[in-house]
From TrEMBL:
<keyword id="KW-0472">Membrane</keyword>
<comment type="similarity">
    <text>Belongs to the EamA transporter family.</text>
</comment>
<keyword id="KW-0812">Transmembrane</keyword>
<feature type="transmembrane region" description="Helical">
    <location>
        <begin position="212"/>
        <end position="230"/>
    </location>
</feature>
<feature type="domain" description="EamA">
    <location>
        <begin position="179"/>
        <end position="316"/>
    </location>
</feature>
<dbReference type="InterPro" id="IPR037185">
    <property type="entry name" value="EmrE-like"/>
</dbReference>
<protein>
    <submittedName>
        <fullName>DMT family transporter</fullName>
    </submittedName>
</protein>
<feature type="transmembrane region" description="Helical">
    <location>
        <begin position="299"/>
        <end position="320"/>
    </location>
</feature>
<feature type="domain" description="EamA">
    <location>
        <begin position="36"/>
        <end position="160"/>
    </location>
</feature>
<feature type="transmembrane region" description="Helical">
    <location>
        <begin position="50"/>
        <end position="72"/>
    </location>
</feature>
<feature type="transmembrane region" description="Helical">
    <location>
        <begin position="242"/>
        <end position="262"/>
    </location>
</feature>
<keyword id="KW-1003">Cell membrane</keyword>
<dbReference type="InterPro" id="IPR050638">
    <property type="entry name" value="AA-Vitamin_Transporters"/>
</dbReference>
<dbReference type="GO" id="GO:0005886">
    <property type="term" value="C:plasma membrane"/>
</dbReference>
<feature type="transmembrane region" description="Helical">
    <location>
        <begin position="92"/>
        <end position="113"/>
    </location>
</feature>
<feature type="transmembrane region" description="Helical">
    <location>
        <begin position="119"/>
        <end position="138"/>
    </location>
</feature>
<dbReference type="InterPro" id="IPR000620">
    <property type="entry name" value="EamA_dom"/>
</dbReference>
Length: 347
């Protein structure tokens, strides 16, 4: 009875609350990761850092998997699994590879060669791409305010990428882009594709199956890629007690709690609400980078961030006006579009 009452209360919480909590958690994730790696540098094992970025990602996923199995094991019963089609499993596998292995690997590599603020600002290309894909695949109506906000935000990303870069550079014609910034941009493209796929999948696939399967696939693919690129020695300190202690805490807060809030909000939110939540992230993330790491934004980052803030305001106005004018029709459009794209049959 108490469980049912708690479930009812949780279901009554607006999607915006879940998304706001997720934004705060995700904003702190990169600074916390950098801080955890710094702790490893102070506790070397035979000259090696036991809390390397690869170990953080791999062991963190294993810890998160254990927590997810404890929370969602009931979702893995015969009826739920039998209801999934071959297309569902293929989509889940693709999503697991993209958002569970490749995108995190790119972000974690960038963490080692560029500062958090650059990662945050350039990563904001993700909501812009999500908006474009939502319009293209889900036929989500857009208004001039949202389009203008996305254009201004993209200009801020370009300014940040061109005027400030990491120590390692890639030369592209007359421009030089930092390797870290390029990796972040690639990760953002992959994540935006996964966001749209997630929106479609979560309408018919239990969240427990989605999260656990994505975690397993992502962990396996990442492990294989790391072994191929760096060799078995790369995970020599993967069983360090300090690493596992920190990763249990990291997995609980960042991987499980943050993703659970995001995916719960995702099932009830509109694409424009997701875009708005994503655009809020850089403000929170820059604040977290300052509070946790003491990173002070550069002039280029202030310029790019200012444009992003203007874009955020435009998008906020557009989101508010669109929901006020035609709140119900956007939901109908989502359902119709999902029926066309993935054969959505209702709850």
């Amino acid at each position: 009875m108490k469980t049912n009452q708690l479930q009812k209360i949780l279901n009554q919480i607006p999607s915006s609350i879940y998304l706001a909590i997720a934004v705060i958690v995700f904003a702190a994730s990169n600074p916390i990761t950098r801080r955890v790696v710094d702790i490893g540098n102070q506790n070397l094992i035979d000259g090696r850092n036991p809390i390397s970025l690869c170990n953080v990602l791999f062991v963190g996923n294993i810890c998160a998997l254990g927590l997810m199995l404890f929370i969602f094991h009931r979702h893995w019963h015969h009826e739920n699994l039998k209801a999934l089609t071959t297309k569902d499993w293929i989509s889940l596998t693709i999503t697991g590879i993209l958002s569970g292995a490749i995108a995190p690997a790119l972000i974690f590599t960038a963490l080692g060669i560029t500062n958090i603020t650059n990662i945050v600002l350039i990563g904001r290309i993700e909501p812009i791409l999500s908006l474009v894909l939502g319009f293209w695949l889900l036929s989500i109506p857009l208004n001039p305010w949202i389009v203008s906000g996305s254009v201004v935000s993209f200009a801020g990303i370009v300014v940040t990428a061109l005027l400030s870069s990491s120590a390692q550079n890639l030369t592209m014609g007359a421009f030089q882009l930092g390797t870290g910034e390029v990796l972040v941009a690639l990760a953002a493209v992959i994540t935006s594709i996964s966001t749209i796929v997630n929106k479609l999948q979560l309408q018919s696939i239990p969240i427990g199956i989605f999260m656990i399967y994505r975690n397993i696939v992502g962990s396996i693919i990442f492990f294989l890629i790391a072994i191929i690129l760096y060799g078995k020695e790369h995970f020599a300190d993967a069983f360090s007690p300090l690493l596992w202690q920190l990763m249990l805490l990291y997995a609980t807060l960042i991987v499980v709690f943050g993703q659970l809030c995001w995916l719960t909000g995702l099932t009830k939110a509109t694409i424009t609400e997701l875009n708005l939540a994503s655009l809020c992230n850089p403000i929170a993330a820059i604040i977290m980078a300052y509070l946790i790491l003491g990173e002070v934004p550069t002039q280029a980052q202030y310029m790019g961030g200012s444009l992003l803030l203007v874009g955020f305001i435009f998008s906020f106005i557009g989101n508010f006006r669109q929901n006020k004018i035609n709140r119900d029709s956007s939901k109908v459009t989502h359902i119709k579009a999902m029926e066309i794209v993935v054969g959505f049959k209702g709850v």
